[in-house]
Write a structure and sequence with these properties.
Shape: globular
Distance between the termini: 45 Å
CATH class: Alpha Beta
Radius of gyration: 16 Å
Strand content: 15-25%
CATH architecture: 3-Layer(aba) Sandwich
Number of domains: 1
Order of helices and strands: EHEHEHHEHHEEHH
Number of strands: 6
Structural class: alpha/beta
Helix content: 25-40%
Strand order of the largest sheet: 3-2-1-4-5-6
């Protein structure tokens, strides 16, 4: 049976924290790959600061050079709000011989009781919790804990830095940094 990690998110923009988490979980759990699944419209946040195509393009630039990371556009293709249960039901239909490991930060671990149809979802996927500053990995739901280096970076912090005309060098991969500059993303939003 294949073992695949799932890292979902808005990726607005994708940053080094996303890739560190994916690589640490992939190696710790000996996963064959990690699929990055950008959401079209996040169900638990306000709308994304950039359109789905820009977020997809930024991810694609980085993932093209990493054999173990793959871009899966299931939620963008579906458009609208995406709930994890809908995505996982579809993925299980398409890949019945695959065991999925859904990677979430500690902030989402604490939020698990509020996830849409969480009891059904936990039957379809193994949750993998990684630490995040200011949060604990405490929940009544079964999760696999993976220790990762603490890198306190977030997409909102990067957007704020861009709006304040501060450097984001080394916080995002160089290809993402170039894309953001070339397309004038996150300026005056």
């Amino acid at each position: 049976m294949k073992r695949i990690g799932i890292l979902g998110g808005t990726f607005d923009p994708p940053h080094i924290g996303h890739f560190i988490i994916a690589e640490e979980v992939r190696t710790a759990l000996q996963l064959e790959a990690v699929w990055f699944i950008p959401t079209y419209e996040p169900p638990h946040k306000h709308e994304a600061a950039t359109d789905a195509v820009s977020r997809w393009e930024m991810l694609n630039l980085v993932l093209a050079n990493h054999a173990s990371f793959q871009l899966n556009t299931i939620e963008i293709d579906r458009s609208g709000k995406s709930y994890t249960i809908d995505t996982m039901v579809e993925l299980k239909k398409r890949y019945p011989e695959t065991e999925f490991y859904f990677i979430i930060g500690a902030d989402m671990v604490e939020y698990l009781p509020n996830w849409y149809r969480i009891d059904e979802l936990q039957e379809l996927v193994n949750f993998v919790g990684v630490k995040r500053a200011g949060y604990q990995l405490e929940t009544t739901y079964p999760i696999i804990q993976v220790e990762i280096p603490m890198v306190d970076v977030s997409s909102s912090m990067i957007r704020d830095r861009i709006m304040a005309n501060q450097s984001i060098k080394y916080l995002v991969p160089e290809t993402v940094h170039t894309y953001i500059k070339e397309h004038g993303l996150y300026e005056n939003k």
